[in-house]
Structure formats: structure tokens, C-alpha cells
Specification:
Blueprint lengths: L1 E2 L2 H21 L4 H20 L5 H9 L3 H20 L4 H20 L8 H16 L2 H4 L8 H20 L10 E2 L3 H22 L3 E3 L9 H32 L2 H14 L10 H21 L2 H18 E3 L1
Antiparallel strand pairs: 1-2, 3-4
Helix pairs in contact: 1-2, 2-4, 2-8, 4-5, 4-8, 5-6, 5-8, 6-8, 6-10, 8-10, 9-12, 9-13, 10-11, 10-13, 11-12, 12-13
């Protein structure tokens, strides 16, 4: 794989950050509160992206040692403090919740030092990060501006906590946290996307889960929405379910096949609350999608490739189909 270097990643970060800030300014957001929010979000995004650059994660963990995870955690927490004071929304309850989310996983990880990947502490941490994003008090933690950045901010913190825990503190191998391209990846990515589409579209239509309803009037937002889905939905979910969960399950069971199937089913079950509970049609189709994403991750060894398939599926669903 030809992995992107530090300067290329910084260029991507600058482009994404500048685009987001310009859009926010165009929407009329200004002042100290906006500056604090923008600074926090862009620096969290920088952390999320920079560890995908060639050699950065290994160099950071090797230079600082086992304390690298704690150092990263402190930085994440301080960014949240900047947000609270800058937006005038500081209360001790918010600070305590964020401190728990950042430092409890790191404490659990440091308590499992010396144990092999796939310990109960590892699975507890993965479950905790997922639960915080899925069910956590996002709107309480990120009240400005009107909770509109709550989900994105929560995802950014969750990804960085996972990086601090597994890339730095635990130094887990085989996650595939990288951005790059390798031999035959076009075949794997395109084949996985088309294979899932050929299977899922007939099943979705037959089960009355989706209906063909192209939104031609919304295609002007295609590029921006595609990038947002890739960065804030597909990338975090692929880190959690493929880079971490599937990786740890395979190591724990000593079976790639067991990790593949189990993580895919768990990925499907994580969607049971989407829409009307229990949404078994969503669970079924998401489990099948998980199998294709997991296959892509296994073939390439990178969550970037599986995230591209994941994002392509979500974007296609958004623009061409309607959930019933």
C-alpha cells in the first residue's frame, strides 16, 4: 500500500477545515463562541486524520511510550474545556461526563497492559465507545450552536479516544488505520460495492424496506454530503467494527472467519434501534453489508478501503432510495 504522508494528510485536513469554516461563516456564525467551536472541531479532526499518515502513530507511540495515550487523552480533554469556556456553556456536569469518557477507557487500557489483544478490557472499551456515540448525551455535551454539531463533535471525540486507547496505549496491531491505495484495491472496492448492491437492492425492495426514489433535485449537494458521510459515518464505524472489533475477535478466537462473521452480525444488530424498534429488516441488510465491508478490510488491511465501500453504499441509498 502507498500510504499518504504527513504533508498530504495536512493538506486534506486544511481543505476540509477551511471548507467547513467558510460554510459556517456563510451561515452567519461569528464571534468568540464560533471561534472556540471551530478551533475545537478542526483540532479534533486534525488528530483523527494525522494518525492515518505514514509512520505517525508508530513514531508517536515509540517516542513517548505507554504514556502517549494518556497525553493524547489530556489534549482531547483540554480541547473540550476550550469549547466550554469559549461558548459560555461551562458546567461541572458536562466536564465530568467528558472526563469519564476520555479517561475511563484509557484507565482500563492501562490496566490491561501486558495482556494479549482481545482481552475483556479491550471489548469493554469498544462497547463503551460505541454506546457513548449511540446513546450518549451528545446534545447536553455540545449545546452550541443549538446542538447542530453535537453528533459530529461526539464522533470526533470518540474516534480520538479510540486512537489514544488502542493505537497509543495498547499499541494494537493490524487495525489498518491508514489512508492510501494498494494493488488491486480498485477491484476490491468496486467489486464489494457492486456485489452488495446486486444482493441488497432486490432484498430491500422485496422486503419493502426501501423504494426507488431518486432525488435529482438534491444532487448539487452530492460532493459535500459524500465527504461528510465518509469522514463522520463510514470512517468511524469502520474503525470500530472492522479495525477494532473484527481485529480483536479474530485474534481472540484465532480465526479470521469467526471475527469476520461475528463482527458483521454485531454491526447489523447495532442498527436495531434505527427507525421503529426493533428494526429487523435493517439488522438483516446491515449484517449483509457488514460482510462485504469486512471482506474489503480483510483483503486490503485498511479501514480506508472498507470505508469507501461503506460511504458509497450510504450515498447511493441517500440519493436513489427512500426508506419505508
Amino acid at each position: 500500500m502507498k500510504q499518504l504522508g504527513l504533508w498530504a494528510i495536512l493538506g486534506i485536513w486544511a481543505l476540509l477545515s477551511l471548507s467547513g469554516i467558510v460554510f459556517a461563516l456563510w451561515q452567519g456564525h461569528t464571534g468568540r463562541a464560533f471561534a472556540a467551536t471551530a478551533s475545537t472541531a478542526t483540532l479534533l479532526l486534525l488528530l483523527m486524520l494525522i494518525f492515518a499518515a505514514r509512520g505517525v502513530a508508530d513514531h508517536f507511540a515509540r517516542s513517548i511510550g505507554t504514556g502517549s495515550g494518556l497525553l493524547l487523552g489530556v489534549f482531547i480533554f483540554l480541547l473540550y474545556v476550550v469549547y466550554l469556556f469559549g461558548t459560555g456553556t461551562f458546567v461541572f456536569g458536562r466536564l465530568a461526563l467528558m472526563a469519564a469518557f476520555v479517561f475511563v477507557p484509557l484507565t482500563i487500557a492501562m490496566s490491561s497492559q501486558g495482556s494479549a489483544p482481545g482481552s475483556w478490557q479491550d471489548f469493554l472499551t469498544v462497547a463503551g465507545v460505541w454506546a457513548f456515540v449511540k446513546f450518549g448525551p451528545s446534545y447536553y455535551l455540545w449545546p452550541y450552536p443549538g446542538g447542530r454539531t453535537a453528533y459530529i463533535s461526539t464522533v470526533l471525540v470518540a474516534v480520538n479516544v479510540a486512537l489514544a486507547t488502542f493505537l497509543c496505549a495498547r499499541q494494537t496491531k493490524g487495525i489498518g488505520y491508514s489512508i492510501g491505495w494498494g494493488k488491486n484495491w480498485s477491484i476490491y472496492v468496486l467489486g464489494s460495492f457492486l456485489g452488495f448492491g446486486c444482493l441488497a437492492i432486490p432484498l430491500g425492495l422485496a422486503s419493502h424496506f426501501i423504494a426507488f426514489a431518486p432525488q435529482w433535485n438534491r444532487w448539487s449537494s452530492f460532493l459535500g454530503l459524500s465527504v461528510a458521510i465518509l469522514v463522520f459515518i463510514a470512517w468511524p464505524e469502520e474503525l470500530l467494527f472492522r479495525g477494532l472489533l473484527q481485529n480483536l475477535l479474530a485474534r481472540n478466537s484465532k480465526s479470521d472467519l469467526a471475527g469476520w462473521w461475528t463482527s458483521s452480525v454485531l454491526f447489523g444488530l447495532s442498527h436495531i434501534t434505527n427507525g421503529v424498534f426493533p428494526n429487523w429488516r435493517y439488522v438483516f441488510l446491515a449484517s449483509i453489508a457488514g460482510l462485504f465491508y469486512a471482506w474489503t478490510w480483510r483483503k486490503t488491511g485498511s479501514i480506508f478501503a472498507s470505508a469507501l465501500v461503506h460511504a458509497a453504499v450510504d450515498v447511493t441509498w441517500h440519493f436513489l432510495f427512500r426508506t419505508l
